[in-house]
């Protein structure tokens, strides 16, 4: 009897992390890549995150300026040890301690850092570093223990789902046995520290590479008739989408190695909105459908067929389109926003409860670019206040926006006034290249910019309301608009949010 009580106690202990995940609601966060030719500055990035009520972000490094900008916002941040620093950290406890001191201790608690990804897809992209991966994780964790931060900041590493072989049916999945000498101690580390498996899940690639074996509807979370659902013949579990099947494959692969209590957090998932001629399914419609359905699926706390109701928090790949990335066109078009903070498409999230975010279309401003030629700036200011018919009375001496008395400050006011007078139409914030759109309100003191006053109505759930309208109805029937199209007004909105935190 004592033996069975002991075994029961051990079993309950093993299941505690998953039980804890079942008690929590899942969150949706975003990845922030920086391969943009005109990357917004950290202040602008944070302004967009706040406007969209995005409460969880993942960085691919530990950029000091970005972490400083995130300070005081409460946004939960996952930072990363870049792959090119992994070998040094994995071979030296002191190097790991220095990395934590420089990149973590300098920013907490003002910046809410909650996790560290030690490398990204190390086993599949830099396999030569695999032998030191677990050591690097342990050294980073030891430094957190020394700083008494280990209970607040989890340590893990993001994996490509391609390390899982024979992934359908999920019950037959197992990790590539080449990596078992790494995966076993890695999973033991995650279990002993109460951390989670970070997994990148891309149904887009699974669909493309399946050569027709996976249907588009199954990849996009679209409703399937019962006879189209995938059934695991070993467990009789029904799968209605690729995402759940891959996550459960990870659970089964861990179980194969006798690890049954480690939660999964999806660190990357998304769908490209544009592709080459040989990428016909990288479209605005499909990207919108996938990400909209993904967000609703995660926030509904559906869990997976193997672990129903267990949170599978997910970071969408990604915040911005990264136009400077190499490779296929699709590689540059995974973002929810362009570099100006304008949504690429309107996510269909009506009825997602508290997941209401603010529309950025009425929260953008036109400002003078830094470092441009002063004479060109003055010429653009003269045009705006003259032929452009902007009311520039607010920047005359003694008026509310006269100070600071600089060409750049006055031009910013005039540019923004013209931009909003023209209903923020595409091309109305350029001024021969000396102006740019930002999501940061340039108002200061008693100088309130035109964009701060609101103009031409309000957007609610993607529906434009005339100022005289009292309607609060929402619509998901707005046409898709690419960032290459020209219109009288660009009507976009993205709804993202987070609920309870990991």
Give an overview of the whole structure.
The protein is of the alpha/beta class and 502 residues long. The C terminus is likely disordered. The chain starts with a helix and ends in a 37-residue tail after the last strand. 32% of the residues lie in helices and 13% in strands. An eight-stranded parallel barrel has the order 1-2-3-4-5-8-11-12, surrounded by four helices. Helix 2 packs parallel to helix 3.
Short structural summary:
The chain is α/β, with parallel strands linked by helices and 502 residues long.
Topology:
Elements (H helix, E strand, L loop, with lengths): L1 H22 L4 E5 L9 H10 L4 E4 L4 H7 L5 E6 L4 H5 L2 H13 L7 E8 L1 H4 L4 H17 L7 E7 L3 E2 L8 E2 L4 H14 L3 E4 L2 H7 L6 H4 L10 E2 L6 E2 L2 H15 L7 E6 L14 H16 L14 E3 L48 E4 L5 H12 L21 H15 L13 E4 L19 E3 L2 E3 L37
Parallel strand pairs: 1-2, 1-12, 2-3, 3-4, 4-5, 5-8, 8-11, 11-12
Antiparallel strand pairs: 6-7, 9-10, 13-14, 15-16
Helix pairs in contact: 2-3, 5-7, 7-8, 13-14
Radius of gyration, CA atoms, in whole angstroms: 25 Å
Q: Into which percentage range does the β-strand content fall?
A: 5-15%
**Element-level helix/strand string:** HEHEHEHHEHHEEEHEHHEEHEHEEHHEEE
Q: How widely separated are the two ends? A: 37 Å
Structural class: alpha/beta
Task: List the strand order in the largest sheet.
Answer: 1-2-3-4-5-8-11-12
Low-confidence stretches: 6-14, 353-361, 453-502
Most strands sheet? 8 strands, parallel, barrel
> How many DSSP-defined strands?
16
| Tally of DSSP helical segments | 14
Coarse morphology: globular
